[in-house]
Amino acid sequence: MFLLIFLHLFQTRQYIRKFIKPGMTMIEICEELEKTARTLISENGLQAGLAFPTGCSLNNCAAHYTPNAGDTTVLQYDDVCKIDFGTHINGRIIDCAFTLTYNPKYDKLLEAVREATNTG
């Protein structure tokens, strides 16, 4: 079961990384991610669904920002965007978080974060 949840999360992550582009609103990003996750896990009430609201944080907001209805914030080329989402099946939760940037000036920062994460 755990591997199945992980596979669905991985597929959602791969898709949404390609989908997100500067010019999109935070709401558009969250809605597409959540729609994709719900479809892949075959959302079914309390048996399978989203584990928590999708986090879509920009720049100095480190984590856990979720856009509310009416939020008009748009992802810009120079933004650092942190995505955090999770799904559950039968109460087993998997969380996924990743960072996206479009301006190459952030490449060294992201590499340093990857190295630190992989080092432990």
Automatic annotation (TrEMBL):
GO molecular function: initiator methionyl aminopeptidase activity; metal ion binding; metalloexopeptidase activity
Listed Pfam families: Peptidase_M24
Keywords: Aminopeptidase, Hydrolase, Metal-binding, Protease
Keyword Hydrolase among UniProt keywords: yes
Reaction equation(s) it catalyzes: Release of N-terminal amino acids, preferentially methionine, from peptides and arylamides
Start and end residues of each Peptidase M24 domain: 14-118
Gene Ontology terms describing biological process: proteolysis
Cofactor field: Fe(2+); Mn(2+); Co(2+)
GO cellular component, one term: cytoplasm
Name listed for the protein in its UniProt record: Methionine aminopeptidase 2
Organism ancestry: Eukaryota, Metazoa, Ecdysozoa, Arthropoda, Chelicerata
